[in-house]
Amino acid sequence: MKAGLINIGVGLLVAAAGLAISFGTYALARENGGHYYVTWGLVVVGGLQVLIGCGQFVRGLFTKEGRASLRNLFWPQSAAGVAARLGILVVAAGVFWIFAPESWKTVSPASLQSFSLRDDPDTVAYSPDGKWIAIAMGYGGLEILDANTGAEGKSPAAESYQDIQAVAFSPDGRSLAAATSSGLRIWSSSDWGSVTPTLAGKAADGNYAIAVSPDGKEIATGSVSRGILLWSGADGASLWRAGTDSIDAVAFSRDGARVASGSEYGDIKIWNAATGAALGALDNPDSGFAIGTLVFFRDGRLAAGGYEKPGVSIFEGATGKLLARLQTAPPLFGAQGNVWSIAISPDESRLAVGYTDRSIRIWDAKTYSLVRTIFGHAKDVKALAYAPNGHELASGGADHVLKVWASP
Do residues 296 and 251 touch, judged by C-beta distance below 8 A? Predict the structure, then answer.
């Protein structure tokens, strides 16, 4: 009887340990693309432990004592036995809760709308009137969807661009600027639902990030190895160019006097929007890692994040001082989500951040405390945008789905 109990007990323990090691390290191994051989070794060892544990468990079942012990395990004959089983269940539930993924423990709201996309979204932008959502999808092209129904509006002719990286509406909503691998493109339309957009301006450069100034007169773009470029919002005429970095993110200050750029090496620089003169560089704690998203607050603060790091840095725009670091504690197992996208609510009370762990986290923009976490996508949350009225938040995921949420 003791031999059967030992076989069953050891088998279950080894199987549980193997599963914990395997599932606990799988996410980390996957995140790092298999480059960490120690992690993959643990996965293999865990799998072998599971097989050994199952063999020991089966061996216990073929002994008379093991079968008797198994019956006693499920049908205890005493109050002490029942209490012991309940205690085991409580402990097992507690261990499961500790090691379970955060998404299993988070109660997320249902989305208001869910629309299928034909490819991964790189950026999402609301029209100023809130009626339309423009989605840039790399080689998947550009879609303009009705924000309420998901019906497709009139998109520019596909032959006028290639590999669209980012889009932004003008303040009056009549123009749409895009950074594409073919260069800057500016389209205009009197009605994005019924009138085919016409090409109002173009340039051979400016093929990465994009931002439109608050008055719509200038467009800032990033480029590969050619720094930041400023263009006329009317026709795409070149105004100035500065730097030689590969720029992944650009943003105008709310007064339009400054423009920020973030490079693939983590450099964040501030430029005079009128002259292109360098005003300074910020001391980025994530220097060396790409900056993928930048957003200015009205009071001059600047939020920055990158898809290679899990935190969002908040800087004082005038001095470059680091004011806060928005980052959750790392999970016990697996990789922590890195930052794909940032959006500020129109009243600037909330900061929405999309992560590689499929989550959307809503932060208080004044206290920098975490307000809510939403898990609504099957893959990375790559793009975010608040509706102009502040009541909705649109999220684009690598699962080829665009969702609209009631603003938390």
Answer: yes
pTM, full prediction:
0.80
Reduced to 3 states (helix: H, G, I; strand: E, B; else coil), residue 217 is coil
**Which residues, in sequence order, are bridge partners of residue 350?**
364
Position of tokens 């002490």? 80
d(CA 182, CA 160): 9
Residue with tokens 């009056």: 172
When the pLDDT of each residue in the chain is averaged and rounded to a whole number, the result is: 83
> Highest mean pLDDT range out of 92-106, 198-212, 371-385?
371-385
CB distance 351 to 341 below 8 Å: no
CATH number of 113-406: 2.130.10.10
Residue 57 has pLDDT above 70, yes or no: no
* Cα 332 to Cα 100: distance, rounded to the nearest angstrom: 9
Please give the residue that has the higher pLDDT: either 262 or 91.
262
Rounded to whole angstroms, how far apart are CA atoms 258 and 252?
A: 6
Q: Which two tokens stand for residue 80?
A: 């002490």
Residue ranges per structural domain of the chain: 2-100, 113-406
